[in-house]
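[job 0417] fold request received: MFS transporter
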Amino acid sequence: MPWQFGRKCPSFGFNPRLMPVQAVSPPKYTVFTAAVIVAALGYFVDIYDLILFSIVRVESLKDLGVTAAAELTDKGLFLINMQMGGMLVGGILWGILGDKKGRLSVLFGSILLYSLANIANGFVTSVEQYAWLRLIAGIGLAGELGAGITLVSESLPKEKRGYGTMVVATVGVSGAMLGYWVGQKLGWRNAYFVGGGLGLALLVLRVSVFESGMFQQVQAQTDVVRGNFLSLFTNPVRLGKYLRVLLIGVPLWFVVGILVTLAPEFGRALGLTGEVTAGLAVFWCYFGLVFGDFFSGALSQYWHSRNKALQVFLVFCAVLVGVYLFGVQGASPATFYGVCFVLGMSVGFWALFVTVAAEQFGTNLRATVATTAPNFARGAVVGLVPAFKYLSGALGGIIPGAAVLGALTLVVAFWAVRTLPESYGKDLNYVEE
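[job 0417] inference complete; emitting structure tokens
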């Protein structure tokens, strides 16, 4: 008889480690489980707080005394690097904790940390304070998505987990749109207060979510080593697979961290007929991401292939990067924002990328990979920014610099997908030796 791990017994209210599938088969057909709902709302708040600085960058820095255009760009990139650097550290920290202590502990520990950091962000009086708090917030922001996707992937049937992560992504990325609206209506300080408050309110929902049964099963096996980050580098096959997973997510953060965050600078370089704002560019990009995440997840389910859906979206992204850089010279701001919307659709494979990361590795390393992979991809901005600056100087402008850097990230990501094992429908109930 097959067994299902970690399901709550509906009759007695306890959580046994083993239970016959027949006793709990009806709930397995429901995609909208408590784990999916909490992970989706957590990602919503995560994206709100993650992207909020890009939305309020200019307003907040001017309020702190930074007025020169060049300094606004330099200080803004510095603060982005601090936030993304925090996410690199947090990705490792939360990933290891997720495999050692559990998915739920990371899901809510990370939400608590970034919520408190963002509330504190509303009180800053200097760029230095701003930078350190963005670092702390980045550490907190690093844990939510990976833990949520891992929990959802391990809680749903293998044929339906793609739908679950699709819901998480579609709901989650819309947090950027709320961030834009709040930033515009309430001001940058209040926008940070709202983000922190939303995160703290979300913690109340923890009581409705149960730990992953797969994790509980492995946790009971004392001979299994869990959360050993260094073991990803000791096996050549495992290392190669891990590095290819990381490379898939880099193009999205090239688009968001360079093209969209620096929309005002690109708008001037493209000779647009009016000024554009980073906040509105982020809004339209993430509005597009809502649709992109939905369609990429749905396609991967329809085609029974994660890799095929990823390849299609990478090609789509390459086309739209070309349109953004070379197809809107002298256009109106409205046209530019329209391109940002479609560009956002083209990089709407983010949750699919994290799902693939979770599906590629065993239960004792799954949270480590699913948490470090998106944060290393986000943290790639730390390397993309100086590369972008160098190429822009060497090639005589930000347009050719961005074109070369974008082409490089997209080609490498496409190769990574082509050589990665297909993971759709894979049984996740195993451990890495």
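[job 0417] notes: The chain has a mean pLDDT of 85. The beta strands are 3-4, 19-20.
[job 0417] exit 0
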